[in-house]
Amino acid sequence: MSHGMLLAATTSRTYFEWGRVHANSDWIAPILALVATAAYVVWLYRRDAAELGPAVRTLLVGLRLAAIVGVLWIYLQPQWRTEHDVTTNSQAVLLVDTSLSMGLADESFPSSAGAPNRAQRVMQALKGEKLLGELRKTHDVTVARFDASASDIVLLPKLSATSTSAKKPSPDAEIAKPIDWATALAPRGTETRLGQGLREALIAQRGGPISGVVLFTDGGQNSGPGPKQALEIAQQLGARIHAVGLGSDRQPINLRIADLTAPARAYPGDSYTVTVFVQAQGMAGRSVRLELLTSASATGDRAAEAGVIEAASELRLGADGETVPVRFDLTPTEPGRRTLTARVVAPADDSNPNDNQQQAEVEVVDEKTRVLLFASGPTREYRFLHTLLFRDDHVEVDVLLGTAQEGISQEARRILDTFPATREELDEYDCIVAFDPDWQSLPAATIDALEHWVADQAGGLVLVAGPVHSDTWVEKPELTKIRDLYPVEFRRRFALSETSTPTANDAWPLEFTREGLEADFLWLGDSAGASREAWTGFGGVYQCLEVRGPKPGATIYARFAEPNTEPDGGRPYFCGQFYGAGRVFYLGSGEMWRLRSLDPAHFEQFYTKLVRHVSQGRLMRGSSRGVLLADRERYFLGQTVEVRAQLTTPQLEPLEAASVSLAVARPDGTTENVVLSADGVRVGNFSGQFVVSQEGAYELELPLPGGGEQSLTRRIQSRVPDLERENPSRNDALLTEITKTGGGRYYIGVEDALGMRQSPAVWAELPDRSLIRPQSEKPRSLWDNWQVMTAIAGCLCLEWLVRRFAKLA
Q1: What beta strand segments (E) does 520-647 contain?
Q2: What is the pTM of this model?
Q3: What is d(CA 84, CA 11) in angstroms, rounded to the nearest whole number?
């Protein structure tokens, strides 16, 4: 968090001072020196000028004494000093919780129609003139936000004085434009780090006198350090901590579909599993009916309620907050896109009927995924994956093995002698998995065809680093396009090295980033929690290619957690990026076969999901004229959806346009238009983004220019994370403890803080702690000038002339 301190100059005064005199005792030495020197001069001239008249003698003594006084004047350094009284304004901080639980309403969970939610109540208070206006009569006001992280929103200067900023030349320019509180305070954080946010807000104000912090929160501390350290800092600064509790103190009685998982792709005649996660509060032990419906999806169709009930189950609900999984096995009979709707028949006392169903889409296809395995040698990773894919009835696998002898037998559809050299040959494949590939063996035309296949034909590419060829080709200028495909930046010289510690024979775990934990294609279970538990049990890997880091725009999903590295400083192990319309995924070494020691199914699940993920652009093509892609299918509220499209004209030429418009249908039925801008490098590629602000299914529809009614469609799902759902009630106990220790007052609701009830308004509880400090200008000297030096020199010259005329030696 940054912080600015506003200063206001008040009165000023000018006074005379001696630069070398700081106390009365400082006069003793100069006066004694002056008296002694004057006595000596008088004695000298009484001896040397005894025969001269009294007037001449007095003149000579006066001239010498005047020169000595001038020297003493210089020594004492007389000067004029101007001093201003500068007021450092008192600081007040409004710290607003922007975690996703703030999207819930005060009285009902999450909200009733038209009722403002918790965040909106804070926004209404900030938009009104009362809160900020009263605070700014006394304080400079900083408005900040916190959730999983913290940052300042705006610094508003005190109204009663003309202010100049100590850190910014014009704070008025900073606040000249109206503040979009709805955007600034939109609930988007998947965690509530209350203690950390309070600590950062206090540390940011250490440079000035802080009166206090006003917390607007429901008290849902569910991650990070507690408030103890922040309260210690507040006591050191003399700041008061006030809290405004938002939400209801009662746990809601609510039943909801927490999640719905289904494969993105299924096949006629083959069963697939759909898992529904049901969570309840205040309904432990009750029985409810859970239904699974299917309906045919059509462009723009959102009426999944009209589906056919495929399966149903009577479910006994668990304890408060407990998630109960229910599995259904479905067997599709015909190809086509299907919308699945999980629906629970809730009791009458359910507080929020809006979360009683969720949707997902399944594409039933009667075609196989075509995969090419390209390996420099038969590594263990290659052998296990080759066997897995060959035994999968829905995959056609071809192999190209660099060390294979002529006539070798391999379980594959085809055994290739050379890499597919043309665009037509590459177009036969949906995914290429390259194990430590020898890119130098490919001619330039083949490399061009491969780059075109990924960027323009939405090909999926999995790149597995290895110990043989990964350090031989990165400096070759003719392989620039291959380097461009990788989502990592290579060092000028590197090798696949083991850990830099003496314990090189030890495996080191993978540290997943937030993006990695949320990426469902990396899940080793049906839910994020189950996946995290499985990855935690994984022993880790022994090697990881040493690279410089990820490319701009690439996403790190996991790092190699070698010792002696800073947090977030390990080498990228899982990393991915969009490349044009295609997806590229990078593995730092070929060691995922080690998952088999934990559970053989984990290796199968990992690569099956990964191949489908990178191949998504080709598998989900709804039209020969293009593809519409999102970076993933499931999001948490507040996250940003990256959308890409690769489009052609009716003549199948790359579409040349500055932008195209994407229609985003929200779960509540409203529609938002999102502009996808042209790539600027590759014709026909467009990208844009939007933020998911509602829980439920989003429909993305992109009309094809010149295509009549033809459109590209996509569905994504958004949900509130479990951390923000587990206990949405107001935490009175924590907020009371914080204010009691912090010397402040606990307000229940915004109205209470505004003084609309019996409590005094919050601004009355924040005393003015402005400081008045004298600030001196550079002194104006009265001795360091030509006039003083001329006077001294003139006295000495005149004395010399008089002595010459008087014929003194």
Answers
A1: 543-545, 549-550, 555-560, 571-579, 582-587, 626-630, 634-636, 640-647
A2: 0.63
A3: 6
